[in-house]
Amino acid sequence: MLAKVAERIYWIARYLERIENTARIIDVYDQLLYDLPTEVNISWYSLIELSGLEPEYKSFSDLRLEADVVHFLISDTNNPGSIICNLNMIRENVRTTRDVLPEQTWEQINEFNHYLKTHLADGKNRKSRHSFLKHIVGRCQRLHGLLFSSMSRDNAWQFLSLGRDIERADMATRTVESGATALIVKNGDASINLHQVVWGHVLRSAEASGSYRKTVQGPVSGDDVTHFLLSDDQFPRSAAFCLRSIQQGATILPRGDKLYEHTLNILMGPLSQSAISRTPVKLREYLDELQVEISELHWIITKLWFGYQQFELEALEVDKSSELEPVA
How buried is 70 (Cβ within 10 angstroms: 0-12 exposed, 13-18 middle, 19+ buried)? Predict the structure, then answer.
């Protein structure tokens, strides 16, 4: 298949997963406000830091208020990481690759686009935000189900899987980091009781509560949640599960040896190191290192299959933090 077609399909999966994960993590912080003691101060700006969008946000606003952060992440068309911007990019990529995707994909994308643009105000209102974000997640899951249940397991499907798995692996680290970040904030004596509440919401953000209980068979704890979301081999949203799926795809696609080797290096290297008993600060440092290794997988895929020469890659690496690719 053409390199440009493969690239667009890969990014459809990444953008779709990114929309779902952004909605989930906003919802986590929104729900934390209701469950935490009043003396606990959770910084909404942490979501900007977790997304790696600090430079973009600085040009948007000097304030770090909830309303500004939520608007920036959901409906700011100048933010390449916002939900509305990612959906626009999905729509453009689907429009130009309709011949290799299920027929209903274009219809589903247009319905999703119409819903989002007519309900943006619901995302800004705290009373309606939870319902709005749940609907966004549901729309993403419907599209995901359509794509992965209707496509032949050919090269197009392999690139769709690669995009999904890289985004999920990266988001697994950021989901854990959101919990560590919430616990770093100095909240006096209230911090003693925060851990179970925070890590419980982290599990719910990844739809992992039920699977966690069946696997761990114990109370919610930071160490167990961290290990589950990073290293569990059976949970499909864990970093380890996604990396092993990438390995499998690398054995099927041509010239996938380098991708296979780097994925193996992550599994045997950073991901094999125990994240248990780390302080929230040390855990964040470890997760930052792991995110860099996972982001390198994207650049290997870009070089191997999307037709970029080395000098083009070096120019792209100037802005690795966002990992966003224009659809031109």
Answer: buried
